[in-house]
Predict the structure.
Amino acid sequence: MAFEKIESKIKEKGNKEVKGIEGEAKKESDSIDEGIKAEEEKVNKKVMDKRKQELELIPKRIISNARMERKLQVDSKKAEIVRSVFEGAKKKILDLDNKKKEKLLRSLAEDAKKNVRDPVLYVDKKYSKLINAKTRDIGDFGVIVESGDGSMRVDNTLNNLMLRMEPDLKAKVGGILFGD
C-alpha cells in the first residue's frame, strides 16, 4: 500500500504540476493572443487611416486635374486668339493700297540697308513695280538686302519680321486682350 500511496502522491503532484504548467501556458498564450490582437488592431487602424487619407485626396485630385485641364484649354484658346490677331495684322498689311505698300517697302529697305555694306536690294516679283530693286522669288511681302559680296543678309520680309517680333508682341497683345 505504501507503494500505491507514493504512486498516488507522485501522480497528484504531477497532476498539480501539469495543471500549473497548463495554467502558465494558458496565461502566456492569452498574453500572446492579446499582444497579437493589439498589434492587429494597430495595423488595421494604420491601414484604415491611410485608406481614409487616400480617399480624402481623390476629390482634391479630381478638382485639381479639372482646374489644370480648364487652364490648358483657356491658354490654348488665348494662344489661338493671339495667333488670329497676328494673322489679321498680316492680312491688313497685305491688303494695303499700293501707295502704302510702297512706303512700307521703302522703310523696310532703308532699315535693312543701314546694317549692310554695299547693299543689294531684292523684292518679290509681285511687288517689283512698287520699289526699285532686283526681283527674286521671295514669296513674301518685304525686302531682302544682301551685301555686295554676299557675306551678309538681312531678311525684312513680312513673315520673318513677324517671327522676330512675335515673342515680344505676344505678351503685349495678350495683356491688351486678356489683361494678363
